[in-house]
Amino acid sequence: MPIRISWFAILLAVIIAGLIHIATVLGLPQIAPRNAWNRLSSLAEPNKLVVLPAASPAHQSLPLMAPDMRYAFCRYDVTRGPVRISTRIIDELWMIAFYRPNGANFYTISGGDINREKIEIIVSTESNALLDTETEALYDSDDVVVVTAPENTGLAVIRVPLAGVSYAERAEQALRQARCDRVVPHGGLAHNRGNMVTSIQRELQERDYDPGPSDGFADLQTRAAIMAYQSDAGLAVTGIASNNLLKHIVLGEAPDPITEQSGMPSETSDLIAAVQRFLSDQGYRPGAADGVPGRGTRRAIRAFERDRDLPQTGRISGKLIRQIVAIAGSDFADANQN
Amino acid sequence: MWTFFTILFYSGLTLFLGLGSAWQMVDQGSALTTGRLGPWSVWYSAGSPNADPYTRAHFARSGRLPITSTSALYYVARVDGDGDELTSECEYSIEGTPIDAAWWSIAAYETSGRLIPNKANRHAFSSRDVALRADGKFQIAVSRDARPGNWLPAGESDQLQLVMRVYAPRTTESTVGGREVDRALPEIRRVACR
User: Fold this and answer.
1) What kind and span of H or E run contains B15?
2) What is the mean pLDDT of chain A?
């Protein structure tokens, strides 16, 4: 059976081969079932630090693991709030590397970069980061490093290269003492910060602003409730929990204009933009998702409130965010990251 | 008329070209993504958030979790200085000057990525435990049978590859724009074969 040679067919074959080439290369990361994220995820719960067994011919948690290094990792998940990693820094070779689930190493810090014996790392996304004042209240600021993660989940991997065989025991012991856990606001650890935010939540709850559970964590709903309060009280709408705000709610004192933050912080514009995107997806036409609550946005919120049998206020509030999260679920929180 | 066999031929050719070139460039790398310094090869943007699709695909498939190249470099050798494939049938000598970095280490693996089982329980030499000669250089013997000095057991299977990790490499004028031009890496010389 003869095969017909046609230049046109060969050209077509080469072009389609090129497309197959591109699709294969781009698709591989999505379909690689044994990538590092999958391998390590199966070894541990989220927000738990796990020391990997030393690499040996019989066992390696990852391919081409270094035999003269010790590893520990934490699969962090900051969906429900920031995560804290606390560990001793053994020497200048000690290193912690942060990865996105796709394996991109977006942040690295080594003992040589910082001359300290221990370190507290707070991991959060931009949208649920602790405020500077909160971080300061929580920790001796000298030992704190804040890492802003591009996604809610990822890996933090601690590596300790061994400075000799006798060193292994020491390295393993230090890794076993390291911790990775969620920053729990109403626990003993975060009491300073928890008190202020919890009080604001309680006060707003009594005044029917629906800030969500009084858990000391200023999540989206709490911040939206603060915005509604500030809007009603004729204050600058910042969405930020502060001692001045608490005083204003409880005592009716006007915040000191000098110490009070003016202007819209970026996390609040992000929240507004996320609400705008949501309303737009639902067909309410709030205008551009610009993070500014203009007339179109207020009209769209009012229309949404009417359809959901809520009082028509036209402003961002705790009730509004609760409704949105009930509809959009975690998608809304994810969108809020961008 | 296009016959069945003609169509089959062109479809096969298309698949072969498309998948073959993708596999080659993801598995082995290309001038765009990898550098070769003698027997050593390095993926320029391993672990980088800005890595190209080939590098991403390579490391997703391999299951490794490299540190971004500004903090650590990984060189892999599967051939000796003459370009012949490494095998534990032969004995090799790795010779070089200590690398200008906070820490470095040379480890031996089977080509599958498994560490090589051996009675001495020795899998690597690092900047902290390699013995230097009087002239400041080091020499590591890779062989099945024990050797005096720095001996890296090559094991009983024929598979052999070497991985050199360099932590916090110090930048020199030879590393323009993150690309290694001529960092002085150890030489791998074949001594004898069985």
Assistant:
1) helix B4-27
2) 83
